Amino acid sequence: MISLNINDQNYNIDADPEMPLLWAIRDLVGLTGTKFGCGVAQCGACVVHLNGEAVRSCVTKVSRAQNQKILTIEGLSKNNDHPLQLAWNEADVPQCGYCHSGQIMSAAVLLREKPDPTDEDIDQAMSGNICRCGTYPRIRKAIHMAAEITRKGGMAK
Amino acid sequence: MSTPQVSRRNFLRTAGLGSAGLFLGLYLPDAAVAMVMSEEEAVAADVYTELTAWILIKPSGQITLVSHRAEMGQGVYHSIAQIIAEELEVDLASVDIQFAQGNEKKYGSQLTGGSSTIRGAYKNLLKLSASARQVLIMAAAAKWSVPVTECYAASGHVIHKPSDKKFHYGELVVDASKLQAPKDVALKPRSAYKLIGKPLHRKDTPLKTNGQAIFGIDKRIPGMVFAAVERNPRLRGKIKSFDDTEARKVPGVTNVIKIAMGVYDMDREGVAVIATSTWAALQGKKALKIEWDDSGFEHVNTPEIYRKQREVLKTEEGRLLKTQGDPNGIINRSKDILDVVYETPYQSHATMEPLNCIGHHRGDTVEIWGPVQAPNWIQDYISKKMGIAFDKVIVNMTFLGGGFGRKALMDYPHEALVISKAIGLPVQVIWAREDDITQGPFRPGISYRCQGVIENNEVSAVKFRTAGQNNDHFRSGDNGKANRSTSEGWLKPYFETIKNISFADVLFQTPVPTMFWRSVYASTNGFAYESFVNELAHKAGKDPLAFRRQYLKEERAAKLIDKIEEVSGWRNKGKTKGFGIAITECFGTTVAQVVKVSKKKGEKLKIDQVWAVVDCGWYVNPDIIHAQIEGAIVMGLGAATIHEITFKDGLVEQRNFYDYKMPRLTDIPPIEIHIMENDSDAGGIGEPGLPPFAPALTEAIFDLTGKRIRKLPFDMASI
């Protein structure tokens, strides 16, 4: 048995310790917001937070996450109202939407560390996340909007 | 998304509409659980009544609208609802949306391709929605015993004007479903629209920012297991033998079986590993040892493909699709012919959501759940291939994490059902990214021979020939006719001014399976043909934009050219270099793009800006149009400058995003988009933004450097 703390809830799962955290979260815990894109840490669709840091869950062994704090897109806010979620909705960023759990989770770490990121900061933090639909111009715009929302007192996590 | 319960009631015929969506009143969520209940029971249970195939209303007033097409990013999940809500007079914010099951009789074609959803359905949807509104008004008037003309509809209610009495739609729907809609319901003029034409927020956006949207890969069915399949890496080979000893040792692996998946004329063999989790299935797949029999077909090499294509284009005339005047005569007698070859690469669709599908074979009924673009094609294919009655093939659509044409093929749903049949359980088959990149089908690589003659600074003849695999022949098996798509992307008004012109294709096949890719033929034709127009302009000594103005005299094209000239700064660019233009037509919509590039000493070539002007006629949501054009430009940038699929000894050389690279946030230039306003019929939007990008970019590079790029992809760093 491996015990995981995801979004402040404890789960005991019967997983091979070698299993990537991604599949434990999706198949064993049943939270499907975190996505499989490449399996080799190239696309960022699987990004979750491990103790507040963005990690590629497709290459993170579930044993490494045991008893650590895991945050997935489902736990980013209760009401879809994290500044990034508000901004993503305001700018209608997603098209197919598949990569955006990972995009938002990557952006959340950026925003926590740099509340008012420059375009260069965004380049650095977000160039590990692929969007095949090409929503990049809106991702950049929404991150700036989210910074603005946070400054004006919107909910920040 | 659960399937709502719906009561059975009598059909209500609406006169004068197409065959699809004729009926108001009957809804069968699943053939197995169709309910029969009395009106009283239906009201008490608050089940949906259907007012047209797209509109479901509960007695409590809750409204669900149906998306009969796949949502893969292009926005129809929202746009269909935005259209219906306009004429139905309901608040878009309060309606739910659900995907239809595959049912061509009810919805018409559900093939989500060719950018066809809105342009194909909007007139019918407007009429049906207005008819539904009208029967609701009639039902209210009857309840009040007042003239219909004293009543009107607003925000999901019918209101009696003189008395201000009102009913919500839920209170009327049972009565309304028994009424016959009037033959001619007046539709709103465009000027009266409250929703259509407005940049409303997409209804699927919130679901895509908190993990709630259910894509195929997220779908779960009670009792389902997972599977991954190792398929022949040369795409056509057979299994000689396999050893599953190690695979069966992987914890969670429960079974290993040999299977075959239908891909066009082939049954592609593979070994399926069934397991209790996706991970275990993928691990088991890696542990398989398979010996393949790759005899009996050509093992292709990319350089060889293009060498052969050039070869046949030298000697063969091909099958003529279109010809006017005497291009051959002029070219044969001319001493100064522009005669060049353009080449475009094979591409993978590489949807972010890898292929996957749940199949459940129950004997005489089969059901699939997955990210599929073509529910009706699946029903037809599975019915024939597996010997199941057509209406016993149940297809459930989820959200698609990208489609781009790949998810219109029936191979992966078929494979899921083959495995389910063998093991007697519902199974989700997942493709690893490496399967997705290496297994195809791919956009075909096509070569274009372009010949042109300029006399007295004017075009006197143009002759286009293509050589490359094409789906027209591959799918139909009819190699006797010309490929109908050879002129796709080419602007029709050129035929008015270029009097001697022809299009032909030279049949060319390889063992590689191919499939439609975003913008289909226009995605590659556009590069060759519009680049060649630029070459003709230069040969004639004309500015490429002015050349198009001269040769595209049709009114809409002329206005489009004026607009792109204005917004891109072309008119005032003076001697500034680095501007390129291209205009293509794709699925009823014409898009002009101007790209501006620059290069500082010692630095990489930079795309400073892209401008796009879109003429799609009638449209629903300008923000979705902007998003689609932005995305299409990014996808066009990747296909033109970053990635391609190549073959060596029959094997695909790329495997994952580390060698089939994608554009990243850092690669994206500023993009400015404008939409033309006119009352013409709606054109498509998902695809038309892609084709003009590559030729506009390469023309900009020519303008800056004098270097003409005729082969894609090219490396921007090499300029």
UniProtKB/TrEMBL annotation, chain A:
It comes from the Bacteria. This is (2Fe-2S)-binding protein. The lineage of its organism: Bacteria, Pseudomonadati, Bacteroidota, Sphingobacteriia, Sphingobacteriales. GO terms for molecular function: 2 iron, 2 sulfur cluster binding; metal ion binding; oxidoreductase activity. Residues 1-76 form the 2Fe-2S ferredoxin-type domain. Keywords: 2Fe-2S, Iron, Iron-sulfur, Metal-binding, Oxidoreductase. It holds the Pfam family Fer2.
TrEMBL record, chain B:
Residues 210-296 form the Aldehyde oxidase/xanthine dehydrogenase a/b hammerhead domain. This is Molybdopterin-dependent oxidoreductase. PROSITE patterns: TAT. SUPFAM superfamilies: Molybdenum cofactor-binding domain. One of its GO terms (molecular function) is oxidoreductase activity. It comes from the Bacteria. The lineage of its organism: Bacteria, Pseudomonadati, Bacteroidota, Sphingobacteriia, Sphingobacteriales.
